[in-house]
């Protein structure tokens, strides 16, 4: 499995390409959750499915996806859309979008008596979606081989829970849902720096 | 042949595939898909909650493991709950994944009946043209029994999503 420093270096390299103006696309970089993810991916077996989000680079690399293939995708504007059938990896840039699909694949694995599982990563922003509730209740009730991991950086786009809901307390989900907390080392989008693109100085998200 | 009998025969044809699964609510119980699934064995049916986005996600997820889903919506009105799954996911994954993932989901999109009881504006809406506008896969609306049988055969051969719009008001007609 890819190591912590290689993960950090991969995102630094992508961030540098972005800051050099070589990447005229939105990028959502991972950072600050390397240790937690490495522990989780030790449980993920060959043949398991991994569903990810717009912030998918770490998941893809830890699932065993080819780094060069990922970099090519990112250079073609598909940072938010990492797929790799060799390692059963899918993602969606629609917040919470993969949760019900993950439930369906888990249902298929159970029906086909396959000894594999599904792992679905979402943020605490994805947790806000009703689609997530539908998927969790179904997986829990039907006892399907699917684990949802809430990657909780207390941030939906750039807004913490207390501002979104009035409280920062957490919902208690059934046992198919796990949560880890981390402090994200990059902004929601981009690297937080202004860059020059087509001779214009531009920024994204909190760099405005 | 009645339109409804053409649908029922088409479902029996699809159910002959060992890996076929019919997904939705009121399929194994109640009306059994308005009577169109009466001859489909129970093990081919995944009875779901009334949660249209979940139903669609289940169909997509099942298709990744070689299962052939037939996703059944009783009414267009209720399908609107599934638009994120249909438009952003089912209709986009092949393109987003550079062709690595195809999802051959067959969708039955039924327009609610107006007779003998008129159920009002949230149960009879026809969004066929809207679906054609926003979905990136075929949407067919056969008006005859022959068309029903031909299009379900075509859908079965396809390796991509395929939507067939049925009109409940035609069910009891010899068309």
Question: Helix coverage percent of residues of chain A?
Answer: 25-40%
User: Which chain pair shows the most residues in contact?
Assistant: A-B, 31 and 28 residues
Overall pLDDT of chain B, averaged?
Answer: 97
Structural class of chain B: alpha/beta
Low-confidence stretches of chain B: none
What's the total number of strands of chain B? 6
Percent helix range of chain B: 25-40%
Q: State the order of secondary-structure elements of chain A, H for helix, E for strand.
A: HHEHHEHEHEHEEE
Strand neighbour order, sheet with most strands of chain A = 2-1-3-4-5
Describe this structure in words.
The complex is a heterodimer of chains A (208) and B (175). In chain A, helix 7 links the parallel strand 4 (146-152) and strand 5. With 208 residues, chain A is an alpha/beta fold. A five-stranded parallel beta sheet of chain A has the order 2-1-3-4-5, covered by helices on one side. Chain A has a two-stranded antiparallel sheet with strand order 6-7. Chain A has helices at 4-19, 34-41, 57-62, 67-75, 99-111, 130-142, 161-165, and strands at residues 49-52, 89-91, 118-123, 146-152, 177-181, 195-197, 200-202. Chain B is of the alpha/beta class and 175 residues long. Chain B has helices at 3-15, 52-63, 76-79, 83-90, 93-96, 128-134, 145-157, and strands at residues 20-24, 45-47, 68-73, 106-111, 139-140, 162-167. Chain B is globular and about 45 Å long. Chain B starts with a helix and ends in an 8-residue tail after the last strand. The chains are: A alpha/beta (208), B alpha/beta (175). The A-B interface holds A 49, 78, 81, 83-85, 88, 90, 92, 94, 97, 99-109, 111-112, 114, 118, 130-131, 134-135, 138 and B 21, 46, 49, 51, 53-54, 56-67, 84-85, 88-89, 93, 96-98, 100-101.
């Amino acid at each position: 499995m890819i190591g912590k420093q290689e993960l950090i270096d991969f995102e630094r390299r992508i961030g540098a390409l972005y800051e050099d103006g070589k990447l005229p696309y939105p990028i959502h970089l991972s950072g600050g959750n390397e240790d937690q993810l490495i522990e989780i991916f030790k449980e993920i077996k060959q043949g398991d499915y991994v569903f990810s989000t717009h912030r998918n680079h770490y998941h893809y690399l830890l699932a065993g996806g080819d780094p060069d293939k990922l970099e090519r995708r990112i250079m073609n504007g598909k940072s938010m859309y990492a797929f790799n059938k060799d390692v059963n990896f899918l993602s969606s840039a629609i917040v919470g979008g993969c949760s019900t699909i993950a439930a369906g694949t888990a249902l298929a694995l159970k029906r086909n008596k396959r000894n594999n599982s599904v792992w679905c990563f979402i943020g605490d922003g994805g947790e806000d979606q009703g689609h997530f509730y539908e998927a969790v209740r179904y997986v829990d009730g039907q006892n399907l081989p699917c684990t949802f991991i809430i990657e909780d950086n207390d941030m939906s786009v750039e807004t913490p829970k207390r501002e979104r809901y009035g409280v920062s307390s957490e919902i208690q989900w059934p046992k198919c849902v796990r949560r880890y907390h981390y402090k994200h080392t990059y902004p929601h989008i981009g690297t937080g720096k202004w860059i020059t693109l087509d001779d214009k100085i531009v920024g994204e998200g909190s760099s405005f | 042949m009645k339109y409804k009998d053409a649908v029922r025969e088409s479902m029996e044809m699809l159910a002959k595939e060992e890996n076929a699964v019919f997904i939705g609510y009121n399929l194994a119980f109640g009306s059994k898909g308005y009577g169109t699934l009466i001859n489909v064995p129970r093990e081919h049916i995944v009875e779901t909650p009334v949660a249209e986005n979940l139903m669609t996600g289940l169909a997509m997820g099942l298709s990744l493991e070689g299962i052939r889903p037939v996703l059944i919506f009783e009414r267009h009105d209720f399908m609107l709950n599934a638009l994120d799954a249909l438009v952003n996911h089912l209709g986009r994954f092949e393109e987003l994944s550079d062709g690595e993932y195809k999802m051959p989901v067959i969708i039955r999109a039924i327009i609610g009946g107006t007779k003998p009881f008129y159920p009002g504006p949230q149960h009879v809406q026809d969004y066929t043209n809207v679906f054609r506008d926003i979905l990136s896969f075929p949407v067919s609306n056969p008006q005859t029994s022959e068309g029903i049988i031909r299009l379900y055969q075509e859908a079965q051969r396809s390796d991509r999503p395929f939507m067939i719009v049925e009109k409940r008001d035609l069910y009891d007609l010899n068309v």
